[in-house]
Amino acid sequence: MSDHQAVLAAGEQIAEWLGALDIALFNAGTCEYLDARHFDMALVERVFTPNLFGTLYGVEAALPLLRAARREGKPARLAATSSASAYLPLPRAEAYGASKAAVSYFLESLRLDLHQEGIDVSLIHPGFVKTPLTDRNDFPMPMQVTADEAAEAIIAGLAKGRLDIHFPRRFTYIVKCLGILPPALRRWIGPRMTRQTKEHS
Ligand SMILES: NC(=O)c1ccc[n+]([C@@H]2O[C@H](COP(=O)([O-])OP(=O)(O)OC[C@H]3O[C@@H](n4cnc5c(N)ncnc54)[C@H](OP(=O)(O)O)[C@@H]3O)[C@@H](O)[C@H]2O)c1
Predict the structure, then answer these.
(1) Which of 6, 73, 139, 165 could form a disulfide bond with 157, CB atoms 3.0-4.6 angstroms apart?
(2) DSSP class of 127
(3) Per residue in 105-148, pLDDT tens?
(4) Site residues for ligand 1, CB cut-off 6 Å
């Protein structure tokens, strides 16, 4: 997903095999946490490249296939996995959270432009899901769900045509509410929500 030409070539191959897609879901992503004392642009690029640009390479490759489905009179849906972290900036999540917030903003904006073509856009905002990605985390992950539970929530949300698929709901509603608090309150709460780098704790 980080190789633009490879993703476009995959789209062309799918066009040859299937002709059209009624759904394209982009889920690949990675997470690394920034230590602000050692601002590391290489880390930021390692996170943004698959999370944001990889997703957008996929969108570019998928759009002609989704449009082909519409021409055949079928429904067409674009979907991407963002993260509940897009709702609320957290410590050390500068790169990851911003890459996911960018995915959410980009696709929400694209939703408005694709609406007249009958192509819908769903965003998936998971809380913590137990996967190899979160097994690396060194902080408590409240209300973590299993990968099977996450998959069920995503499939159910897509089947219902939900635009914002977020789970587990108790967790994501709390995060959404915290995300709309005034900045000074978020500055007070944020550091208390995750473990800091050793020297900060
Ligand atoms: N787990 C969570 O709590 C959580 C919460 C919110 C959002 N998410 C998002 O959910 C998605 C899946 O995460 P996960 O928890 O399942 O992580 P994971 O266990 O690390 O799996 C990530 C998947 O993405 C693939 N991938 C990563 N970079 C890629 C690239 N450049 N090209 C192609 N494939 C690539 C990986 O392939 P390889 O195995 O081949 O490397 C792997 O299949 C990610 O977008 C993540 O940000 C996860």
Answers:
(1) 165
(2) -
(3) 999 999 999 999 999 999 999 999 999 999 999 888 999 999 99
(4) 1-2, 27-31, 50, 54, 81, 83, 126, 128-129, 131-134
